[in-house]
Amino acid sequence: MRKKVTIAGAGLVGSLEAIYLAKRGFQVEVYERRPDMRKVELSAGRSINLALSARGWNALKAVGVDQYVEKMAIPMYKRVMHAVDGSLTDQQYGQDGEAIYSVSRGGLNQLLMNLAGEQENVNMHFNYKCVDVDLKSASATFEHNDGNQKNVDADMIIGADGAYSVIRSKMIKQDRFQYSQHYIEHGYKELTIPANSDGTYKLEVNALHIWPRGSYMLIALPNMDGSFTCTLFFPYEGEYSFNSLQTEQQVYGFFKEVFPDTLDLIPNLVEEYFQNPTSSLAIMRCNPWTVDDKVLLIGDAAHATVPFYGQGMNAGFEGSFVLDQLMQKHGEDWQACFDEYSKIRKPDGDGVQDLSMHNFIVMRDKTADPKFLLQKKIELHFSKKYPDKWLPLYSMVSFSTIRYSEAWEIGQQQEKLMQKVMDVPNIEDKWESYEVEQLMLSLIA
Ligand SMILES: Cc1cc2nc3c(=O)[nH]c(=O)nc-3n(C[C@H](O)[C@H](O)[C@H](O)COP(=O)(O)OP(=O)(O)OC[C@H]3O[C@@H](n4cnc5c(N)ncnc54)[C@H](O)[C@@H]3O)c2cc1C
Prior knowledge:
Elements (H helix, E strand, L loop, with lengths): L3 E5 L3 H12 L3 E5 L17 E4 L1 H9 L3 H4 L4 E3 L1 E5 L5 E5 L7 E5 H16 L2 E3 L2 E7 L4 E6 L4 E4 L3 E4 L6 H6 L6 E16 L13 E6 L4 E6 L5 E8 L12 H11 L10 H7 L3 E9 L2 E2 L3 E3 L2 H4 L8 H19 L3 H31 L5 H16 L7 H6 L5 H19 L4 H4 L3 H11 L1
Parallel strand pairs: 1-2, 1-12, 2-8, 5-14, 12-19
Antiparallel strand pairs: 3-7, 4-7, 5-6, 9-10, 10-11, 13-16, 13-17, 14-15, 15-16, 18-19
The protein binds flavin-adenine dinucleotide.
Flavin-adenine dinucleotide binds next to helix 1, strand 3, strand 9, helix 8 and helix 9.
């Protein structure tokens, strides 16, 4: 008889995991708290679009989904920085042709649900919220919107129920279970740059736009319809903060002073600012991610992070890929599979969280610093010449599948080394010189 798996949560990761498990021959039942997003429009919640990069593509490709996603993905080859005076600078993300991709969250989620249901015969149950789980037997209780409850027995349950996972909250009650959650002082709000009347983009399309302003920032990612979705990452408290901007005049005045070029780009700025929700951002860590051979957390339920490296979904997708490889390796021995998954993925969950916080500082602050931009240019230049000796941190994270924990460690060593290179007198004039190249080679050696 086919083994039965229950997945709680039909978000991005739950839906992809369902495809993976169905392809392995499991009977997969997915229970999702919300209504079917393919039939009803859901109210604004998490980001409208996301950056998909190598790890995500790799996991999608392994189950043949990448070909469908390609049709809805917009390559972003570089960052474009918008200064207060309206001047633009840019920074290529990787080597020529390397890009991260803007995809619609809803579009991608719906695609994965369709593929899971239609091609893999996964059963999806909507409006069912997981309210309880027996960790020892993998049976769970789901409550329908109408108040009725049902118990579902399975051989294994996957908690893909996101950052506020109910499955994890049951695990917390176990002895010696580690859990922490840390809300950062910033929240976010989405705003829209609509398309021009002829459907064209108001900004360069193949780029991620950033307005870096020190302790906060605005970013914009392109959508297929000619619009951009902007996200304002802003503190809750302080002189310039969600709390301090209370009136229409204050919001308009702030944008006019700090993001003046956006006034023409975001026509409904003030309305959207007050209509759209302000959402919080948190890092959630826990350990272990599994209970015996019965329960496993995946995606944000295991390692919710702040969005500054654009890696939360990519990390979740990579988790599905790794789990699948371990299932291949361990066969029916789920205990061994779960143990190894928890053991090898946990450091990478921590790694992606550390990297995400690091990149917040890079994006909001350093991308406005010419010295930082030069440093990154030197790294990219050197890496092109000596790809086996140097892969810049951004490339390790976004264009490779090197483990997050390893990338974070190597990146910190690289940073120390680059400080020495940046101390070379007149580095601005001789960054491409033989002298600098030799210095880097000797430092690496
Ligand atoms: C502003 C912002 C920007 C981001 N940008 C990026 C980016 O550019 N690139 C990137 O890789 N990542 C990005 N992320 C992170 C990404 O959104 C998440 O990592 C990803 O959505 C995690 O997927 P998930 O399926 O684990 O969780 P979710 O997407 O949260 O899905 C969980 C699902 O479970 C359901 N659910 C919850 N509780 C229950 C329950 N009790 N019972 C049943 N169902 C339940 C929910 O309704 C939901 O459908 C961003 C996040 C934010 C907030």
